[in-house]
Amino acid sequence: MMKICGESRKSQGGRENIFCKNCGREIDDYAVVCPFCGVATGRHAVQQAPQTGSNGFVIAGFVLSFFFSLLGLIFSIVGLRKVSECGSGKGLAVAGIVISIVSMVLYIIIIASASCAAAALM
Questions:
Q1: CB 60 within 8 A of CB 75
Q2: Cβ distance 61 to 96 under 8 Å?
């Protein structure tokens, strides 16, 4: 079990002097732990950065846009709609949509030119 220290008294200058409840020594009022005995002060907790959820649809859409354009387009659009929930991935979703559309147009051009070439040989 962690001991908590941090008994405080006001000094004449208005600054707070903090004394460790474990060892009784004066410590800095911004100290998280006592530098002398290592007991937590309980005054200033270390805050962790908030974690943002990752948008799996955006990542999947971007990757699929290179190999399976239609699936990449669908996943990127769904991911773009989920950006408001997750807070990230808008640029990746737009990139996935653009790459998917460009890939599909190129596939159509390649198929059309191949079928025209095949018809010319007959």
A1: yes
A2: yes
Whose tokens are 């070439």? That residue is 117
Q: CB pairs under 8 A, 24+ apart, for 46-54?
A: 52/86, 52/87, 52/88, 53/85, 53/86, 53/87, 54/86, 54/88, 54/89
pLDDT mean across residues, the chain: 80
For residues 65 and 107, what is the distance between their CA atoms, to the nearest angstrom?
Answer: 12
Q: What is the pLDDT of residue 55?
A: 82
Q: Which DSSP string do the residues of 72-89 spell out, in sequence order?
A: HHHHHHHHHHTHHHHS--
- 39 and 24 Cβ atoms separated by less than 8 Å: no
Contact 76, 61 (CB under 8 A): yes
Prediction pTM value = 0.54
Scanning the structure block, which residue is given the tokens 């907790």? 45
